[in-house]
Amino acid sequence: MKNTQSCLELVEESEEKFRKIAENSLVGMFIYTEYFVYVNEAFAKMTGYTTQELLKMHPWELVDESNKQSFQTIVQRRLQGEEFTSVHNEALLVKKDKTTLDVKVSAETIHYRGKYAGIGIIIDITDIVKKNQIIKVLIQALSQSDDIVFITDIKGTIEYANRALLEIYGYTREEIVGDTPRIFSSGQHEKSFYKELWDTVLREKNYHQIIINKKKNGNLIHVDTKITPVKDERGENISYFAVSARDITERILNEQKFKKLATIDPLTQIPNRYQLYQYFDDFIAKTEHRKNFFSILLFDIDHFKQINDNFGHYVGDNILKDFSRLIVENIRSIDKFGRWGGEEFLLLLDSTDEHDAMRIAQKLNDLVAGSVFDELYCITVSIGVTEYRQGDTKEQCIERADIALYAAKNLGRNRVVFN
Question: Is pLDDT above 70 for 5?
């Protein structure tokens, strides 16, 4: 009798300790036989039922219809004394108000008050499930996106790459994941370009720039790139970089093509009047800033109308092209030469005063007179020369050069005149 009393006291003491632990737990805890025989406060709050209501319910009554049969079978197996490995099941718990929670249930078979019972815990994983569903949708969206998307760790190692990246760059996933974006390096950017990129993102700032990369086959690609630093769960340190990019190569090439059409003379392939005006503005701005100087040469091919009339426009066009090549090959890279219109051409000589400008003009005049064009024809040119004067507009410079040019023509052509 004394031993039986001691055992009961031990059982009651154990139950009391269990209840103290359970009631202070944030996790739902329960014990069941045919009905629930114990539930803690966290479990009751989770279900929306009172403790008294739960103690009158079968465990499987809280489970959605899709899981009810399997849970009832597990309960009955436990009540028959079957001891099997602790089961961690995900289920849809139906609350008193008929709303549902995604939960994870873990239970074991125990001896309780002389019979078999089940004891377990239940955890609300609704937020986790929703996050996983969102992540799943995002991954699916990213994988189907036509934009390039990849994710790197803090050191730049690629951990994820979507389908578009693989298709556009021509790599396999195995070749990309584990490598760094250096695999795309085209050699078109200076080290300072990439330094600015890293400086920006490591300051936790978003980065946005057009980058010229290289595909696996060696072709260049222009990508409008955005890099976003992603912080850890505490929001303290950067854990990842999310990179999204759009292939804009076709747009860039078209812009370059249109720019060329707008600024390059289609016949001679040298700058046209519009581009020369821009060069003129640049020269003036630089000269005003540095208190420097430059000179202007205005060319006119002598008797060009007669060439067209006597030999045809085909010959005239060839002479214009040959003349353009000849001048370009005999001036400095810092000078700007272009077609002013018809048979007139303009040359801007950087850092060149009147004396040097006249010397260069005479040299070019003699070069033209001693050359053969279109493999058969000889031509001469008249050249008007002027020097930029502080405060001049480009119109004033051109007007003086034009006056000098007409003076050269009136003096018999094939000569150089300064104004």
Answer: no
